[in-house]
Amino acid sequence: MALFSVITITFNNRDGLRKTAVSVQSQTYSDVEWIIIDGHSTDGTQDDFINYSSANISSEPDQGIYDAMNKGIERATGDYIIFMNAGDMFATENILNELSKFCAGTPDFIYGDAIEDNHLKRARPHSKINWGMFTHHQAMLYNRLALADMRYDLHYKIAADYDLTLRFLKSAKRVVYAPIPVCIFETGGVSQTNADIGRNEQFISRQKNRSCSAWQNHFIRSLQIIAWNIRKNNSRLYWRLKRKLEK
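and the corresponding structure tokens:
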């Protein structure tokens, strides 16, 4: 059986961590290590640590979410790493059990679908990484040994998860898609409230990693802006178009 390292990053999000705790602690799969990296919260979060006695907990100041995520990786000992940050939840209590079935053959990377705004958001093929995140980060599992010493680049404020995934997939030998919803995504995070910064950082990452030509890079960013504006101004149209494109 594969050991999953579930890493939860939190800072002054006591209620969000409680939601995530219920989701993690209710998993029917037994081979799980839960790692909580708290940025030294001041909202009472630490008072709840007694309720998370099964978790490996660190609470200290950090340099932001990606520094905290790197700290989580350093503590992980599992076969696969998945991030389920404060406020995020697994789609069902059986999801890790379901995901364990896709670990046969020890793939380097496993990814699945997500639930967002009560919609099933199907993952795009991982080969579409140049077009942005093909699924939510909370629906991605990294083989810890394949990840090796690769870490989140702290120069990025929003898109370090995209950058790491882009770099990781360049060396990943076996990638598996699990056609099931893995997570319930907590909307309103920094990647959504600062979408323009995220798009620009993705542009820089593609450029830095030479993953596409210059004109393709500009074209991709333009289409991302169009898609974001449709979603912001007409959410119903956005989801309708997305479902048609998935067919």
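(Above: one complete record from the training split.) The chain is about 40% helix and 20% strand.
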